[in-house]
Specification:
single chain; 474 residues; alpha+beta; BirA Bifunctional Protein, domain 2; Rossmann fold; Translation Initiation Factor IF3; 3 domains; seven-stranded mixed beta sheet; five-stranded mixed beta sheet; 23 strands; 34% helix; globular; RNA-binding
Length: 474
Amino acid sequence: MKNKSITSRDVDFAKWYTDVVQAAHLATYSNVKGCIVMEPNGYAIWEKMQQVLDHMLKETGHQNVCMPMLIPENLLRKEGELVKGFAPEVAWVTMGGNKELEERMCIRPTSETLFSDYFHEVLKSYRDLPIKYNQWVNVMRWEKETRPFLRGREFLWQEGHTIHETKEEAEQETRNILQLYRKFFEEYLAIPVVTGRKTEKEKFAGAEYTLTIEAMMYNGITLQSGTSHYFGQKFSKAYDIKFLNRENNWDYAYQTSWGVSTRMIGGLIMVHSDDNGLVLPPKIAPVQIAIIPIKQTELVNQKINEIEIALENSTMTYMVDCSEKSAGFKFAEAEVNGIPLRIEVGERDLQEGLITVVRRDTREKRQVKTSDDLLLILQEMLDTMQQDLYIKAKERRDQLTFDAHTFEEVKTIMERQPGFVRAMWCGDEACEAKMKEIRGTKSRCILEDAKPIDDVCVVCGKKAKHLVVWGIQY
RNA sequence: CGAGAAGUAGCUUAACUUGGUAGAGCACUUGGUUCGGGACCAAGAGGUUGCGCGUUCAAAUCGCGUCUUCUCGACCA
């Protein structure tokens, strides 16, 4: 039994994706071009992500702040590379009334400039360092092509901005955050990621280097899912962020920034979900258990009441669907919304002292004795499902990861079925550009600690410098 | 931003070729019967046909413009 309103994933992946977004009531198109309305089911996932990540960030010494949404033009223009990188996507604000009195401003596409200006104001001494701030805000980038969650003109994210006394400490922060993101993806979102360094061409405008986590979607397309940038002293020199060091000399601070966005929701969908709708890893699902009465008799209601009381004293989240819909409708509804477990409570089972628990991902039904420890069983099932989703995603990822030794090989692989292609690269931008001819293949990241698989560049045949993961991106 | 396609009730759509009262299914409301995989019967409500201009006695239908969405490119941490 397949969901009627969802195009099959194997027939048309793009259509399937938007069908799932809408059928699960995550978001709907708004009348503001390129902007979506995040509906309760979608926003709840974001809140859950925020809750977990925010905790992880605070545990590692970060504090939340909030910067203005508007950036004056002169402030934005101080760091040249950043401006060049973002110029085409920046939205400018026009003021009503007497325009001559107003300074031209843009809506933040990212907040390095604001944080830098602030750091310039407050930083005096090495004793003030490190400063590790984060903000949960919306940003605006005037994208030409948009897709719900994956690329929008306005989106929500967290952006961390830190300054440090030494190069080593700032670089350590850049790496630590990358590991924090990796942990969040693997342990909570159940999404395996490849981590590494961006090439010069693909790095953040204005960064010394960019570290990235790259996730593979079910169809083999890559989603850049989070980045952590090391700025060195580039911004601190442009914005004059300096302090008196331990030797009583002026020094420029070493800076980082990093972020993940609502794009993660898109990734979550495209890695785990299926033709019946959304599949959510239990640890990130806003509601973990749906309790469904087959028919609301006295006996059924009484049992549900008992279960509710038990669940109230656990950490599991649940909902009871006591709408007037038929049982089958409620099953389908719980599935399309991606609720990890469903408890079916009906007369027939209860007569035999049973209730039925169903897993969303496998749709496997399990009969549980009412005398058994239900909470323990539910928690076990949630844990198993969490693990299974990760294993399944990893198997899919590994299956679509290939080593290539020649340009022709890369071409054959990408034209047959996109995925991650590991291939050597000489470091020359011309070779990187040449790869784009194959269905827009781009470097995803340089694998810094990996063993080389060959001596020569897959494109030009000259001596290779790096092992690079290549892919087609969203 | 370029090429193509499409906009009719919340959704999917019919009528458009050949201009003449906009019709259905799903969803919704009410009442009743149901309930172990998207129930059934009956009644009801819901439309300035995306928007603007033009042609015409008359426009959902023809023409022009515009906006939005989708697909493919280009662009894009």
